[in-house]
Design brief:
alpha/beta; globular; 6-stranded mixed β-sheet; 3-stranded mixed β-sheet; 9 strands; 47% helix
Length: 252
């Protein structure tokens, strides 16, 4: 799902599943982690930019894929461990990462921007964590979101699932810069070139110090989301999504 092009010290990563609005299947998370490892080892890469092909950045996890998780706590934990470790690799990558966002960045798409260091969005961008609508919560989002936004904003996003505009996301702290429609790539290029000209070791040390304690909640998030995946609410939420109807949650 990821294509990579390296130009003048900047690695351009494209989420390349436009026919599915860059929805993330299970295989994506291991690909995400492997790509981070490859870019960390490549001395030619100074900065990374992640952007989406087609109409948007990413609508998040492939909901239909959730229904294919084998039954049992161990299987659900394994799935969540793969997902969170994929995001966590970008937290730990010692090179700066820019998310260049247009269109929807929802669920896992929004969470991917949260583990990037700088987020540039054009005015078409929309951010949200709508997982409660299918009986779940945004695991990586709850771990990393509070590093960017205050508690009230994070509660608003998780508990309502409402979508934020690019300017609302800027006010909340999820976004660094907002551009005119289509201008997000050029702004990411400008920032990428700027950081690529800086001392790599200084950037790595700065990112490491600023990211301290960012991963303390990952283990708890794995346990919490794995629990929710086994509930009747989650099964109903996924079924309702597939059947294009409103879910009927009963709280068990």
């Amino acid at each position: 799902m990821i294509t990579t092009e390296i130009r003048d010290g900047v690695a351009w990563l494209k989420l390349d599943r436009p026919e599915k609005l860059n929805a993330m299947p299970r295989s994506f998370y291991n690909e995400l982690r492997a790509t981070a490892a490859e870019l960390e080892a490549d001395d030619a890469v100074k900065v990374i930019v992640i952007h989406g092909a087609g109409k948007c950045f990413s609508v998040g996890g492939d909901i239909e894929d959730f229904g294919n998780i084998p039954e049992g706590v161990a299987a659900r934990r394994a799935y969540m461990r793969e997902a969170l470790n994929g995001f966590r690799a970008w937290d730990e990558l010692p090179k700066p990462v820019i998310a260049a966002v247009h269109g929807h960045a929802l669920g896992g798409g929004c969470e991917l921007t949260m583990v990037c260091d700088i987020v540039v969005a054009d005015e078409t961008a929309r951010f949200g964590t709508p997982e409660a609508g299918v009986g779940l919560v945004p695991g990586p989002g709850m771990v990393r979101g509070l590093a960017h936004v205050n508690l009230h904003w994070m509660k608003y996003m998780v508990l309502t699932g409402e979508i934020l505009s690019a300017h609302e996301a800027l006010a909340a702290g999820l976004v660094n810069r907002v551009t005119e429609p289509g201008g997000h790539v050029a702004e990411a290029q400008r920032l990428g070139d700027l950081m690529a000209s800086r001392a790599p070791l200084a950037l790595a040390v700065g990112k490491d110090i600023l990211g301290r304690h960012a991963d303390e909640g990952y283990a708890h998030a794995i346990a919490a989301v794995s629990y929710l995946q086994g509930t009747e609410d989650a099964l109903e939420g996924i079924a309702a999504f597939r059947e294009r109807r409103d879910p009927k949650f009963e709280g068990h």
